[in-house]
């Protein structure tokens, strides 16, 4: 839809409401900024939202054929009308007397929503129609759901009818993004105009009422649908409970009763530790409800928590009547105990959740013991050995005849033999026992293939802190003081806090704590060594063996090594179970069985015994113990170990950590040697600015083996710091050991740039940073981007350290921790600083005039500061600018000032203008985007460009420049001889302005970069602008993204780059140029001799367009960067590009994210490796490329800064464009695999 058409429609809507609606209600409130914010959001949702949904509906159902489409769905819509989902007025609009006169223009937003959901072939998103879809879901269905979600979110403020500025901006941007995706780019500019358009108080109340009316209508519709669902469910239940048994089937009452008794006896007690026979509990006494959350099918986020054992069948937006429930969780989280509790409660006749189906028979099946079909499993695991054949057959017939009242509980899907996995697929896909209710449990990796078919997906997360605390106090109910002491130890140990999430470990910790007299060890390795000693002591006591004060891990060294070897082999195969055949020649009196649980064999046919570790971490510990002994005996060395386990190293990381921890406990030099090897591996990534696997591993090793040995800790930190060769580091993960890394930097001599961008940082991390800066002599740039609160004392410590530091010249702080008080303290340091040249305090939120004035005082005397950033601090207003300008009159060093997104207005701009007019200021770069100014300020800025001879860079975005302002600025450019960069994005610049800029470019000979993104130049504007570009020889970078230029505009730009020999960078993102436009640009590339970077992302380019670009790449010899993200080139397009790149010798970076590329296209890139030596980076996220095998084992000897090498192809690569136009590459730690040896 064109921008003009949208404005016309919007104007018509508003005009109709103003003139034809009932008289405006009297204003009963005083309008404030906050109430206006709320009204603007209401207007955005009601007016623009209805237009967008109408456009979406019209695209699916073209207006010319709408009457035919409605006739096709007449029966379905009539049912909705009978059920009062559609009211008579809406029905009349759908089916007027003259069918061909029907028009979506008459459909209100509630009706449009009902139609989109019911007759447009749109299925609900993964989270359903009434919940917020995951961020990665950009489908039409998801955005329709988002409109309703945002409506409800905004309506949540209805009581006060006010929204503060920060919340308003977040809501506005979220809603805008959704509406633009649904309706097209044309809506973007119009929505920006609405954001600041003046609103009469009368119409503020009017839009509030309209949103309220929409919410009420929608709720009524939902209530009717819920009522229908409820009645349908009652009918189904009535039918299922009243259906008589077939004549040849008898009710197996006695057999069901025997199964109940089996559950009460077999599942009624929990006894997890064979080495402690008295440690067994009645399930009702010890069971504590673990945390279970329902997740959306994408596994991106938790949706809601399950609050009861039998609440797993609760209806949700994705399924109104779940039949199949999958519960995933790590080992030891309580999945098996949950299954025991479910069947035990059924056997005991316990009351169930209201959503739990009416069940007559529960069948608990242990997947590991299954070998045949479902009937064989039931017979083998549940039925008596002496059952008669006739009774068995009757029981099976009963199950088939009463499926809706039968619950199958299948525990341990991930442990099922491979030959029976298909059985579970048939069950969840309703190909077998299609009406049975089913609960399955599994580790996530064991249920990937069937999870998408299950109605409900749950995650078992173990204990939250309250659960574990309750369990501990229940255990120590007779020793309350000891329980309190254990809780204190746990609170002080982050490792333990993470481990007690696991219910089984919590139980073990309680038991072992009774034996330890001096409290728990601090390191995980030492804790497991103590637990091992404890278990071995009990074994000796049980066997009547003397142990005195011996080191029992040494006494039973051979047995533990055998256990560790078995554990390691099982881990490599991802096995939790260990068959008894793996213990040849071992008697039942061996101590190794003390660490294993005997799996209860529910099978009548299988006589062998099966074991498993009580918790996976014990399996990892014993594997680590085995490896450490191998190294100590010199039967292997660490370097050989890393080489041999390269494919499994990340999977075995906990094992290696235990290995290093045990070596640190037994032989310090061994631990230091291993750390040195790991550091060498980390240095292979020294040019990559992100923390790599080996660096994280090295820090975790230090933490694991030096917690209780301060001397070893100092040696290891010193070894890491002095040998690490990194130059830049970005930390973006809160789990990264920041404090340890900062300690290592105290002695490091290579790192120059440090970026810490984590959600939260506390005082302790800032103190560590301060301590490091006191002694570090190489860091030149530090950026801290984090939320939190830093005390004045902490900030003072940081300032004191900065005072000592003589090398830091760039300091950046972002986040709400930095307010006026913190800025005053920093200002005190800066007055005396002799090295700091750049300070950024952007997006701090709490900085106001007081803080900015303190910085202005610094500028009066500073002789080193040349860049000051204060953007997006709305508390900074005109008084701040007045102070800054007074300082600029005497300052001779500041060259860059960023005040974008602050609270300054015309008065503040006027103060800046007065300073810049004199040319006495040293400012060369000024950033004044997104400020609330009038046309007068725009006129003043244009005047500055005409008379100032020092300013080189000006960013003036989002300031409603319009046609009039553009004319003033363009005229000034004709006279300007110093400006090199001008950015005017988001300024409502129209097509006719293309001529204005064209005339300027014909005259101006100094401008090198022009950004006009997110305006409304359209094809005509691009054509007009091209005239000037053809003769201009100074412009190097041009950005016309999101300007609706289409294929015609692309053709004009293409004609320009055929002849222009100066332009090196061109951005045309989001212009819908399609294949025709891509073809025109490609033809121009064949003859262009200057362009190095081209961005055609988001342009609806398909395979044909990609083929045109590929043909150009075969000939072009200058292009090095090509971005084609968010197009639809598919496998064919990807293959065309790869064929061309076999001949191209200049392209270094290619981005093809979100392009509908599948495995064939990705395979083409994979095969390109042997044919291209210049391509260094390929970004392919958001493509369904499947599994191409392990491409993570290439050697990263030379990794260009700021980029990931071309290979391996990575699904975890994402990009973010910085303010400077360069790209940072974000890589998950899973992407950074391990280099070849």
TrEMBL record:
The cross-references to SUPFAM superfamilies, in alphabetical order and at most eight, read: P-loop containing nucleoside triphosphate hydrolases, RNI-like
Asked if the keyword Coiled coil belongs to this entry, the reply reads yes
Coiled coil, from the record: 211-238
What's the protein name?
NACHT domain-containing protein
Q: Which Pfam families match?
A: HEPN_DZIP3, LRR_6, NACHT
List the PROSITE patterns: NACHT (PS50837)
Q: Which InterPro entries match?
A: HEPN_DZIP3, Leu-rich_rpt, LRR_dom_sf, NACHT_NTPase, P-loop_NTPase
Q: Which GO molecular function annotation, any one, does this entry have? A: ATP binding
Keywords (alphabetical) are: ATP-binding, Coiled coil, Nucleotide-binding
All residue ranges annotated as the NACHT domain in the record: 323-443
Q: Which organism is it from?
A: Pocillopora meandrina
Give the source lineage, highest ranks first.
Eukaryota, Metazoa, Cnidaria, Anthozoa, Hexacorallia
């Amino acid at each position: 839809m064109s921008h003009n058409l949208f404005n016309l429609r919007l104007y018509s809507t508003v005009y109709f409401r103003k003139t034809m609606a009932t008289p405006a209600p009297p204003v009963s409130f005083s309008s404030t900024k906050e109430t206006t914010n709320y009204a603007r959001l209401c207007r955005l949702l009601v007016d623009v939202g209805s237009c967008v949904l109408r456009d979406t509906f019209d695209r699916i159902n073209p207006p010319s054929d709408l009457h035919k489409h409605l006739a096709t769905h007449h029966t379905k819509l009539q049912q909705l009308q009978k059920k009062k989902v559609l009211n008579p007025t809406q029905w009349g609009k759908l089916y007027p007397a003259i069918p061909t006169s029907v028009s979506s223009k008459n459909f209100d937003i509630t009706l449009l929503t009902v139609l989109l959901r019911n007759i447009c072939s749109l299925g609900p998103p993964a989270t359903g129609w009434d919940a917020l879809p995951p961020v990665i879901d950009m489908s039409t269905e998801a955005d329709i759901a988002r409109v309703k979600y945002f409506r409800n979110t905004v309506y949540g403020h209805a009581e006060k009818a006010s929204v503060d500025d920060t919340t308003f901006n977040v809501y506005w941007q979220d809603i805008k993004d959704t509406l633009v995706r649904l309706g097209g780019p044309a809506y973007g500019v119009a929505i920006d105009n609405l954001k600041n358009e003046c609103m009469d108080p009368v119409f503020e109340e009017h839009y509030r009422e309209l949103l309220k009316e929409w919410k009420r209508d929608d709720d009524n519709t939902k209530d009717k649908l819920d009522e229908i669902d409820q009645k349908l469910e009652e009918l189904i239940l009535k039918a299922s409970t009243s259906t008589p048994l077939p004549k040849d089937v008898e009710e197996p009452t006695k057999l069901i009763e025997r199964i109940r008794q089996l559950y009460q006896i077999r599942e009624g007690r929990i006894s997890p530790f064979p080495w402690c026979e008295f440690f067994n509990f009645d399930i009702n006494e010890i069971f504590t409800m673990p945390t279970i959350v329902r997740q959306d099918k994408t596994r991106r986020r938790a949706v809601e928590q399950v609050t009861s054992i039998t609440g797993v069948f609760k209806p949700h937006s994705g399924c109104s009547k779940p039949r199949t429930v999958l519960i995933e969780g790590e080992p030891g989280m309580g999945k098996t105990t949950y299954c025991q509790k479910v069947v035990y409660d059924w056997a005991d006749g316990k009351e169930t959740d209201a959503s739990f189906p009416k069940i007559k028979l529960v069948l608990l099946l242990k997947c590991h013991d299954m070998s045949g079909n479902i009937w064989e499993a039931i017979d083998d695991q549940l039925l008596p050995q002496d059952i008669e054949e006739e009774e068995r057959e009757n029981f099976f017939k009963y199950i088939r005849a009463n499926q809706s009242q039968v619950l199958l509980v299948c525990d341990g899907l991930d442990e099922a033999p491979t030959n029976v996995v298909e059985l579970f697929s048939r069950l969840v896909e309703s190909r077998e026992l299609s009406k049975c209710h089913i609960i399955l449990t599994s580790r996530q990796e064991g249920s990937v293939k069937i999870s998408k078919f299950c109605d409900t997906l749950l995650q078992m997360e173990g204990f939250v802190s309250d659960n574990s605390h309750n369990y501990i106090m229940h255990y120590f109910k007779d020793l309350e003081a000891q329980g309190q002491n254990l809780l204190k130890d746990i609170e002080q140990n982050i490792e333990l806090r993470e481990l007690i999430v696991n219910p089984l470990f919590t139980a073990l910790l309680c038991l072992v704590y009774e034996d330890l007299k001096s409290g728990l060890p601090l390191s995980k390795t030492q804790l497991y060594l103590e637990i091992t000693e404890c278990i071995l002591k009990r074994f000796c006591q049980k066997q009547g063996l003397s142990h005195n004060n011996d080191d029992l891990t040494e006494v039973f060294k051979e047995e533990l090594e055998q256990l560790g070897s078995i554990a390691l082999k099982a881990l490599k195969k991802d096995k939790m179970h260990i068959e008894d055949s793996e213990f040849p020649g071992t008697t039942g009196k061996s101590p190794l069985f003390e660490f294993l649980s005997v799996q209860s064999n529910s099978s009548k046919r299988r006589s062998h015994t099966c074991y498993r570790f009580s918790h996976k971490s014990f399996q990892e510990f014993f594997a680590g113990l085995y490896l450490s002994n191998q190294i100590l005996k010199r039967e292997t060395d660490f370097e050989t170990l890393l080489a041999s386990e390269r494919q499994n190293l990340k999977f075995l990381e906990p094992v290696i950590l235990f290995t290093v921890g045990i070596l640190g406990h037994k032989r310090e030099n061994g631990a230091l040697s291993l750390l040195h090897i790991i550091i060498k591996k980390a240095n292979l990534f020294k040019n990559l600015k992100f923390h790599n696997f080996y660096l994280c591993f090295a820090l975790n090793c230090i933490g694991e083996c030096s917690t209780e040995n301060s001397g070893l800790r100092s040696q290891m930190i010193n070894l890491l710091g002095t040998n690490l060769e990194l130059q830049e580091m970005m930390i973006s993960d809160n789990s990264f050991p920041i404090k340890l890394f900062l300690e290592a930097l105290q002695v490091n001599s290579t790192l120059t740039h440090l970026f810490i961008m984590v959600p939260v940082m506390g005082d302790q991390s800032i103190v560590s940073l301060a301590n490091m800066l006191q002694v570090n002599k190489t860091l030149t740039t530090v950026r801290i981007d984090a939320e939190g609160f830093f005390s004045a004392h902490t900030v003072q410590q940081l300032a004191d350290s900065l005072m000592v530091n003589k090398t830091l010249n760039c300091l950046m702080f972002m986040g709400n921790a930095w307010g006026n008080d913190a800025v005053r303290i920093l200002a005190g340091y800066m007055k005396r600083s002799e090295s700091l040249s750049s300070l950024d305090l952007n997006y701090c939120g709490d900085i106001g005039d007081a803080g900015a004035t303190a910085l202005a005082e610094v500028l009066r005397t500073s002789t080193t500061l040349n860049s000051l950033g204060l953007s997006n601090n709305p508390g900074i207003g005109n008084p701040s600018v007045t102070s800054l300008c007074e300082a600029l009159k005497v300052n001779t060093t500041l060259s860059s000032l960023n005040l974008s997104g602050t609270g300054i207005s015309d008065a503040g701009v006027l103060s800046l203008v007065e300073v810049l007019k004199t040319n006495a200021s040293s400012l060369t770069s000024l950033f004044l985007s997104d400020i609330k100014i009038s046309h007068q300020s725009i006129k003043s800025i244009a005047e500055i460009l005409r008379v100032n001879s020092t300013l080189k860079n000006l960013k003036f975005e989002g300031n409603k420049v319009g046609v009039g302002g553009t004319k003033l600025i363009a005229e000034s450019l004709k006279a300007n001889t110093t400006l090199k960069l001008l950015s005017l994005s988001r300024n409502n610049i129209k097509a006719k302005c293309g001529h204005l800029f064209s005339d300027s470019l014909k005259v101006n000979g100094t401008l090198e970069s022009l950004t006009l993104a997110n305006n409304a130049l359209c094809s005509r504007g691009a054509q007009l602008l091209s005239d000037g570009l053809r003769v201009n020889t100074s412009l190097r970078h041009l950005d016309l993204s999101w300007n609706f230029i289409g294929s015609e505009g692309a053709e004009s730009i293409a004609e320009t780059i055929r002849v222009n020999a100066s332009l090196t960078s061109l951005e045309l993102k989001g212009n819908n140029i399609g294949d025709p436009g891509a073809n025109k640009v490609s033809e121009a590339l064949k003859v262009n001799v200057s362009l190095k970077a081209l961005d055609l992302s988001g342009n609806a380019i398909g395979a044909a367009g990609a083929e045109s670009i590929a043909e150009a790449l075969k000939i072009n010899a200058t292009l090095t960067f090509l971005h084609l993200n968010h197009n639809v080139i598919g496998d064919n397009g990807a293959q065309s590009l790869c064929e061309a790149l076999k001949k191209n010798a200049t392209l270094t970076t290619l981005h093809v994210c979100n392009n509908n590329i599948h495995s064939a296209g990705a395979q083409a890139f994979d095969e390109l490796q042997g044919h291209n030596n210049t391509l260094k980076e390929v970004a392919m996220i958001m493509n369904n490329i499947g599994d191409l095998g392990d491409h993570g084992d290439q050697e990263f000897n030379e990794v260009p800064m700021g980029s990931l090498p071309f290979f391996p192809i990575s699904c975890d690569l994402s990009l973010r464009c910085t303010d400077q136009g360069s790209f940072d590459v974000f890589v998950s730690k899973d992407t950074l695999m391990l280099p070849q040896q």
